[in-house]
Amino acid sequence: MDRTVVIRGLTRILTKADNHDNGVTYEVSLYRDEYDAIEEAIRLLEAESKWIPCSKEMPDEYEPVLTYTNRGDIRIMEYGMEWNGFMWKDEADYLHDIDFVQAWMPLPEWYKVEE
């Protein structure tokens, strides 16, 4: 099943549990922990694999992001203004033309060791 369909369905369950959906009242009850679990599932599904095409949106300047290049590799790079215009800068400080990156996504959170 498509991720967006799952997210949409879970969101509708929460909306109905809140007893309001375009003026219609529903009788759906969830325990608080069930409601929280569904909210967390939605958040994780939305955060998972969110490639953003550069044609739609660019990242904040100088914020390290994961990029998918026109060579088919994945790199951590920064986007920002350089002496010759907006460019992508890789880990080795090499500059690449704006068209070098096809899509990007925010870096995941750092791993935390559970004690």
Q: Which features characterize this protein?
A:
6-stranded antiparallel beta sheet; 2 domains; elongated
Strand and helix map with partners:
Elements: H1 3-17, H2 32-47, E1 52-53, E2 65-69, E3 74-82, E4 85-89, E5 95-96, E6 101-106
Helix pairs in contact: 1-2
Spatial separation of the terminal alpha carbons: 35 Å
Please state the overall shape, judged from the principal axes of the Cα atoms.
elongated
Helix percent reads 25-40%
Order of helices and strands: HHEEEEEE
- How would you sum up the major sheet? 6 strands, antiparallel
What class, by secondary structure content? Answer: alpha+beta
Number of helices: 2
| Low-pLDDT sequence parts | none
Taken together, the total number of domains comes to: 2
Task: Give the overall average pLDDT.
Answer: 80
Strand order across the largest sheet: 1-6-2-3-4-5
Q: Into which percentage range does the β-strand content fall? A: 25-35%
Rg over CA atoms = 20 Å
How many beta-strand segments? 6
Give me a quick take on this structure.
27% of the residues lie in helices and 25% in strands. The protein is an alpha+beta fold.
Structure in words:
By secondary structure, this protein is of the alpha+beta class. It has two domains: 3-47, no CATH class; 52-106. Helices cover 27% and strands 25% of the residues. It is built from two helices and six strands. The chain has helices spanning 3-17, 32-47, and strands at residues 52-53, 65-69, 74-82, 85-89, 95-96, 101-106. It has a six-stranded antiparallel beta sheet with strand order 1-6-2-3-4-5, with no helix packed on it. Strand 2 and strand 3 form a beta hairpin. The chain is elongated, with a radius of gyration of 20 Å. The mean pLDDT is 80.
